[in-house]
Amino acid sequence: MKHLLKIIVVCGLVLPVPVAAWDGFDADTADLVEIITDRIPSRGDAVDVRHYDTDSVQTCLVESVLHNARTVEIVARSADGVKRTLVMEGR
Predict the structure, then answer these.
(1) Model pTM?
(2) C-alpha distances out from residue 12 to 1, 6, 8, Å
């Protein structure tokens, strides 16, 4: 039993844990945001965008995804029609 516990602890420290959130900023307002996803979204996906300054979450539809050398730019439209460019750290 003691050895099994050690194996579980070591595996928990070594095996990768999927990321549930992805940090970046809004290119127009420079507000810090977080996309709640475990992968890079594709065109047509719905993503939840959390705004750090207001601590609110807004669901947006992804219109385009552009991979750069160090960032990923996601153009998303909210339900009220506002289009925003989210610059996320590269993955």
Answers:
(1) 0.73
(2) 17, 10, 6
